[in-house]
Specification:
rod-shaped; alpha+beta; single chain
């Protein structure tokens, strides 16, 4: 009992170990004090004894330190390692006591962070930047941030992984930077930190943006006139550096130049064929081209082609020019000053043969120059013959008649014909046909040996055919020298004879007109006592026509109008019937009169216009047997149709005999007028009493019954006649057409 008490059965801990956090590599001491205890002391790590008392030979980094007499048993760990991360206890075996457990937490800083691709990250221009930073073997896992120009970048993607020991972790951070935010030469820092290294550890990377050469091609001077010297300079920036310069013009390599400068005398081709500078580095090549602003006159770019088209088709010409400054294009037909188009394309719609010819496409560069190109238009169509219609030859000599033929396509056949002879080629008697082709066309020649007078009276036909049609030309042969004068004399005599015959015929016609006029005048004088009687020779017209009496039709009209008059009762029935009977008898009498011209002439009136009853002038009727009735004329011989049609024509009910009648013969017409004048049997006879009659052409007597008319009637007739003459001389389209009698054969 005493021994147990000596060993410290009542021993207690004055110092016990406590939880500690320590960075790996650093020393640590876990306290343990049991004053007055002299027994066995054990340190236990995660339940395993490290050793007895102060003997920890199995753990060279471990040691028990302190004053033994004072009961101090402190555990000292040199250079703490991750394996030291455990639960420690201090136990007094004889006293049967143990300290509270103490947790030793070991912090492990991450390894130095590493950026993939560091220290220089290269990328091509225009590509985004992706950076990855690793912080491994840390406890706890390291946190990672990205810094650029002292500014923390956001948007990084972070992840961590637990290692096999179950205590350490590795962290990864990925940063994405768009191309627009990346610049060459920038430095970006990756900082990794945890509790072991609060200040963190850093890694840096430099951004190197590589790109194809950036090329600028300059041309001096500009603009420049063709034939002068220009200088091309090719400046380039490249990463990696430039390795080669190469020049070309219009795609053709210029091998004699290898530097960054090119000098040359320019022509018009430099305006359309660019000069290029190609700069190369390790990434590739950049090619820049420039055209030179060269002033030059027109040069043909697309040459127009001559065309051959069918008649009625469209013809399209295409003409392209280049020039600098801008040029003007004009299309014209050769020999014509008319501008057909100002465009590159000239379109002729539905061409005709006369459209064939030369067309000119002309280009003008103001103050620099001009140029033109001519093309031909050939129109397929029927042949066209152009020859002198009268050709000459000597009597007794060999003579030739030439026929010039333009034909596209060429004529299939050419023939000469005269009288009853047709000759296409070869010789027939005195005649020989030869055909020669030229650039302009075909010439066919008819040769006659030993010209005779009959050859000058013969008509020669030259005819040509092709697949589109044919054409014919009539050619006459005229004698040269002395024979020419005799031929002209014959022609002159023929003309004289024609003139004599014409004069004789004219005189005969004039005689007939004169006789008709005298007859009309005599009849007018015979009836001068009638009111408003006028008859002039201009009222007579004789025309050769086919006779058509229409007897049956007039009979029907006669009956119809007669019945109409009876029904209307406008005239006294008995008086009217008597008039009709007289007219019928007179017409029957006239139909039996022998035609003095034996049917050669047929005398009729020709109605040109109806005058209104209110006209202020007398109305003329083309009737040799008509006298003026105030404003109307009454014919001597008339059809039933016309007289009846006037009975109800208007309020005045005047007779209008201007429609259709024949020339009466004898004195029966005058007697009719006398009877009608004396009878006055119409119910409204005032209009009829004003009517005036004239005799036929053959009746020139002057009845006594007309002597009662005064001189006023003559004055009226004279006035009406004067108007008829003046109106025939001065026609006016605004006045109604006048009825006039004329004589012609």
């Amino acid at each position: 009992v005493l021994k147990d008490q000596f060993l410290g059965r009542c021993a207690v801990f004055t110092q016990q170990p406590h939880d500690l956090v320590v960075v790996a590599g650093q020393p640590v001491t876990l306290p343990c004090s049991i004053p007055g205890y002299h027994g066995i002391v054990l340190w236990v790590k995660d339940g395993l004894a490290l050793g007895v008392n102060r003997d920890l030979s199995g753990y060279p980094r471990y040691a028990v330190v302190g004053d033994h007499d004072e009961g101090e048993y402190h555990l000292r760990i040199q250079r703490v390692e991750l394996v030291d991360d455990a639960l420690f206890e201090c136990q007094a075996i004889q006293a049967a006591i143990r300290s509270r457990p103490a947790r030793v937490t070991v912090l492990v800083p991450p390894d130095d962070p590493a950026i993939t691709g560091a220290p220089v990250v290269s990328l091509r221009a225009g590509e985004p930047l992706n950076l990855t930073c690793h912080a491994n073997n840390a406890k706890p896992a390291a946190s990672i941030i990205w810094i650029r120009d002292r500014e923390v970048l956001s948007g990084a993607v972070y992840s961590k992984t637990l290692l096999r020991d179950g205590k350490r972790e590795s962290a990864v951070s990925t940063l994405h930077i768009p191309a627009s935010s990346v610049e060459s030469g920038q430095i970006i820092t990756c900082r990794a930190s945890n509790k072991a290294v609060p200040s963190g550890k850093e890694a840096r990377v430099t951004i190197d943006i590589q790109h194809l050469p950036l090329v600028n091609l300059s041309v001096e001077p500009q603009p420049i006139l063709e034939g002068n010297l220009v200088k091309f300079h090719c400046s380039a920036k490249a990463n990696p550096p430039v390795t080669q310069y190469r020049w070309a013009k219009g795609g053709n390599i210029i091998r004699e130049v290898s530097g960054d400068t090119y000098e040359v005398v320019v022509d018009h081709s430099f305006f359309t064929e660019p000069v290029s500078c190609e700069v190369t580095n390790l990434l590739g090549s950049t090619n820049v081209s420039r055209n030179v602003d060269v002033y030059f006159g027109p040069h043909m770019a697309a040459e127009p082609q001559s065309l051959q088209v069918d008649q009625g088709s469209d013809a399209v010409f295409n003409c392209a020019w280049t020039g600098n400054p801008s040029l003007t294009i004009v299309w014209m037909k050769r020999g014509s000053g008319v501008v057909l188009s100002n465009e590159n394309v000239l379109t002729l719609r539905a061409v005709k043969q006369e459209d064939a010819g030369k067309y000119v496409c002309r280009a003008v560069v103001p103050r620099v120059g001009a140029g033109e190109k001519e093309v031909s238009l050939t129109v397929n169509g029927p042949p066209t013959i152009s020859s002198t219609q009268t050709q000459q030859a000597l009597h007794g000599e060999k003579g030739q008649i030439k026929c010039f033929i333009r034909s596209t396509p060429p004529p299939d056949r050419i023939a000469w014909s005269w009288k009853e002879t047709v000759l296409e080629s070869g010789t027939s008697g005195r005649y020989t046909v030869e055909t020669v082709s030229t650039e302009e066309g075909v010439i066919s020649t008819l040769t006659m040996s030993n010209i005779v007078p009959a050859d000058f009276q013969t008509i020669y036909n030259c005819t040509a055919w092709n697949s589109f049609g044919s054409d014919t030309e009539i050619i006459r042969l005229r004698e040269q020298g002395g024979r020419q004068g005799s031929t002209a004399l014959l022609v002159l005599r023929s003309l004289h004879l024609a003139v004599i015959i014409g004069v004789a015929v004219g005189a005969f016609v004039a005689f007939i007109v004169l006789m008709g006029t005298l007859g009309a005048f005599c009849c007018t004088r015979a009836q001068r006592n009638l009111k408003g009687v006028v008859s002039t020779k201009s009222d007579i017209r004789v025309e050769i026509v086919h006779k058509d009496h229409n007897a049956a039709r007039e009979t029907e009209e006669h009956a119809a109008i007669k019945q109409l008059m009876i029904e209307r009762g406008e005239f006294q029935q008995e008086s009217v019937l008597k008039q009709l009977e007289v007219l019928q008898e007179e017409e029957k009498e006239y139909q039996h009169i022998k035609d003095p011209t034996n049917g050669y002439y047929s005398v009729n009136t020709f109605k040109e216009h109806h005058s209104t009853p209110t006209s202020s002038h007398a109305t003329e009727v083309r009737n040799p047997g008509t006298a003026t009735l105030g404003k109307h004329r009454v014919p001597t011989g008339m059809s039933f149709t016309n007289i009846y049609s006037t009975l109800g024509a208007g309020p005045n009910r005047l007779y209008d005999y201007s429609q259709r009648f024949v020339l009466g013969m004898g004195s029966s017409s005058i007697e009719l007028c006398e009877r009608e004048y004396q009878r006055g049997s119409l119910s409204d006879s005032s209009s009829f009493l004003d009517a005036q009659c004239d005799s036929s052409v053959s009746s020139c007597g002057k009845p006594d019954g007309y002597a009662q008319f005064d001189k006023a009637s003559k004055a009226s007739a004279s006035s009406s006649s004067h108007y008829s003459q003046s109106s025939s001389q001065n026609s006016d389209l605004t006045r109604p057409l006048q009825k006039r009698m004329q004589t012609h054969v």
